[in-house]
Amino acid sequence: MANRMIRYSLILAMLGSGAVKAQQNNWKPWVLPEAGKLIAAADFSTDYRLHLGLEKKGLMLGLGGAIDQYRFQSYPVYLQARKSLVFRKVNGFLFSSLGYNLKSGTETVSNWSGWWLPSTKEVSYRGGAYAELGLGHVVKILKKQRLHLSVSWVMKSVEESYASSIWNPADQIPKTITNSVKYNLHRTALRVGWKF
Length: 196
Hints:
With 196 residues, this protein is mainly β. It is 10% helix and 72% strand.
């Protein structure tokens, strides 16, 4: 999947290379806050994002950060490329993001073990990859392209690890092992943003 993301990002860069080389317009700064609904197999959640970057002739390049509340609250940071397209007087755009999902620290969580006895366990987290592909529509308000509506596929990775005890009947000694689980969480995101 990472190879597809890289190819898609390169295609967007190539589509915009003519605009980047053009000397007619200067690079202009842009800011785009967004709020989104994340939809996955078993859960609905939200994310809030902020993009900052430069725009020239329909190519928008920038940095972004987010608060992603799906399953594990985390903080993705990423590079984003957007390419504006006009098709039959409809203003649209393609975009891709690639970055790192920040998640760290430890939590004490409830754990039912043994003979249905409640207990707790220490769980530690580590972040991982963050990637996104999508398309959207731009609505003009007061003759400016302000309202951005988009749908995208989003992936974030989180690794969870915790210690647990196992009983070894051969030597009759309980042993502690570390369990690690890597989650690659795939979601569909519906977002609305306002470009400044």
